[in-house]
Amino acid sequence: MKLNSDSVTKTKPERKYTINPLLFKRQFILSSSPEFGFSEWNNIKLNDSAYLSVHPELEVNQSCWNSIRLTLLGFAVDPFAPDKSNKEVLDQIVRGAKNFEDVAANTNALAGRWIILYQDATSFKIFNDPVGQRRVYYFRNRDGFLLGSDPSIIGHFVKLEEDKSKDLQDFITSPKFQKAEHCWMGANTIYIGVKHLMPNHYLDLHQWKAVRYWPNKHLEKVDLMQGAEIASAILKGSILAASKRGPLALAVTAGWDSRVLLAASREISKDITYFVSVPEDAKKRSCRCGNTIKAF
Fold it and tell me: Least buried of 34, 93, 162, 247, by fewest C-beta within 10 Å?
């Protein structure tokens, strides 16, 4: 795990929790008390009422500009600057920023799986990548707050009460829910008081309120070909940037999104492992995918 920072205050949890290294792998816990954290993890004091505990394999970076301090969990790639590291991307985000709005705007083109904690003299906010791939769940009671990658890590430190309400039980046992592959919309969870931070929202930890920050203005229409060129540049640049961080593997299906990514990776196809998943009952069927990839 890399921990790069302009100013990090590392701490040890007041209570020593021991943990299997595979449990909660690449996850984090942010709480109002130094009591909650794992001694084997990287523990960082953000202020007198916010303590961060991060799994050793989840990269952490920090950067400051004037009164603003950012903490990045995970990886962020810039499609227009593919050679930049996570720390360099974070420095780019905060440089010249005057407020949260500037910071959020500077992440518009970024891909990856990341969380950013924003702090200045009067505010403390947390937000994540545009589609919420690195998840944030949050919980508060009279003793304080906890945020984590999943309700289970929050439940490791405090007892959570499962919602047994009739409305929820009717929903999760409904044919519609089963048919939709258990798709769950919205911020609520099966635990009372535990919320899921939605994409394009930030959580204000002082006000304890989730706020939508994007879009913050009317979105202008763009020409079809112009839009295609912009999207193509972002996809190709993101894949190139990711390939510079480590080896890549790409699943190939007959789906439209899969084929778009296949096309976007063409220029670096020699550096990517492509694979297909063939069910047991389909092995005897003719499969053209392998020959297509080979020709590609």
Answer: 247
